[in-house]
Amino acid sequence: MEKRRRVAVVVLGDIGRSPRMQYHALSLAQQANLEVDIVANGGTEPHIAIKENPSIHLHKMKPVNLGGVSKISSALALVLKAAIQFVILVQFLCFKIPHPDIIIVQNPPSVPTLAAVKLSSWLRSSKFIIDWHNFGYTLLALSHGRSHIIVKIYLWFEKYFGRTANGSFCVTKAMQHELAQNWGIKATVLYDQPPEFFHPASLREKHELFGRLENNICHPDGIHDCISTVHKVEENQASCYQIDHLSSTLFSTMTDNDIFLKPNRPALVVSSTSWTPDEDFSILLEAAVMYDRRVAAALNEDDSLEEEKLWTDINDGKQYLYPRLLFIITGKGPERRKYEECIKRLNLRRVAFRTMWLTAEDYPVLLGSADLGVSLHTSSSGLDLPMKVVDMFGCGLPVCAVSFSCIKELVKVEKNGLLFSSSSELADELLMLFKGFPEDCLALKSLRDGALATGSSSRWSTEWESHALPLINQVIEGKHRD
């Protein structure tokens, strides 16, 4: 029996927060019939399909933390961290995993990943492919500026080792052009596409998800707003009339095993963020404040209107031209705590925020249950596309996205989403889309139809088989480049 070939998938980062590389691993195992060794940092759990596939083997490296050294010298800490990561990665690729025929590495980060993979592939007589998600030097330039000597060294490093790869993938045609014209690298465009488990949620899936998230949504610590207060009223009513409140969520109710969405439910808006400087979350906060104030002005409400009375009226079924908005913000990152403190200081009547981290299984259901997605991704290079938007389209969720150079490769204005360049523009879009919610918002329904069409037109497995598999086979057979 012929021995199955092996591929190593390398991520110098949290594999649970690297969905594209997880999808690579699944396709390599299921569609290319290869044994797959994932070499990545631990942290967030990957999708259950990764853990349950017998052909995928996860090898977790320990993240390097030099907090003590960084207090003395940040430059020294960066050099030491890169050196230690280099040694650890080479150790895994050369000694801790079986011999790979090919190595597929995520970029960025470029330092020390590309050098470590290049050395390991040479020592083990393997080929390697770079999957260009973005450019590492542009991310570094966000904090140092493009003229900084460290950024220039990083750029040289990234170009030099990028050219030594046996093949390359990239995420947009704009990035493909940049790599070809200015880097001398021929790359195959492999667009992000949603895998099959991203799809519109059924009523039962929605109801069960809202039940699982009830504590996070309706009982947040230290938050008093239009969501938590109304839900307390509903719970008190349920207790008085001996109603099983477990059959009712903020958005849905179940009667005799039939599930219905509540007509006075809030509109659910989802945004996923890494809480990093390349996503300006303040735009969303400012837009939320503007929505809140403009709705009050449109309904001729003044500041004397008591919040508690407004929230009780909403709970009692009073219909308004504009709904409450509940923003659920998912993700982990360095600036999350700062913005959570900002949210607590906002005085909003019809808007509420919740921040949370969902499992890889619950996240697609949340997208499939929402009414609108918001993307704040701007791209440090201007050449990559937000994968979160791809996932949203897979779930039939229309999107409002920050406008930047190549976003129109993905978001088709007034077909599957809208673009904005300022908080005021986003607030205008929220008012336009949610006017008459939930039944009489035709513009939102039209965008949802477009998002469904976009999401169903292509899936990761078909995109991967058409564009990735041929290159991988060529590289393995040595027909692409040595």
What features would you describe in this structure?
- The protein has helices at 19-30, 48-52, 67-72, 74-96, 113-123, 136-144, 149-162, 173-183, 203-212, 214-218, 228-240, 282-298, 307-315, 336-345, 362-369, 387-394, 423-434, 442-457, 460-476, and strands at 6-14, 35-41, 56-61, 102-107, 127-132, 167-170, 188-189, 252-255, 258-261, 267-272, 325-330, 351-356, 372-375, 399-402, 417-420.
- By secondary structure, the chain is of the alpha/beta class.
- The strands form three sheets. It has a seven-stranded parallel beta sheet with strand order 3-2-1-4-5-6-7, sandwiched between helices. Strands 12-11-10-13-14-15 form a six-stranded parallel beta sheet, sandwiched between helices.
- Strand 2 (35-41), helix 2 (48-52) and strand 3 form a beta-alpha-beta unit.
- Helix 4 runs parallel beside helix 5 and helix 12 packs across helix 17 (423-434).
- Residues 238-245 have low confidence and may be disordered.
In short:
By secondary structure, the chain is an alpha/beta fold.
Summarize the SSE layout with pairings.
Elements: E1 6-14, H1 19-30, E2 35-41, H2 48-52, E3 56-61, H3 67-72, H4 74-96, E4 102-107, H5 113-123, E5 127-132, H6 136-144, H7 149-162, E6 167-170, H8 173-183, E7 188-189, H9 203-212, H10 214-218, H11 228-240, E8 252-255, E9 258-261, E10 267-272, H12 282-298, H13 307-315, E11 325-330, H14 336-345, E12 351-356, H15 362-369, E13 372-375, H16 387-394, E14 399-402, E15 417-420, H17 423-434, H18 442-457, H19 460-476
Parallel strand pairs: 1-2, 1-4, 2-3, 4-5, 5-6, 6-7, 10-11, 10-13, 11-12, 13-14, 14-15
Antiparallel strand pairs: 8-9
Helix pairs in contact: 1-19, 4-5, 6-7, 9-15, 11-13, 12-17, 16-18
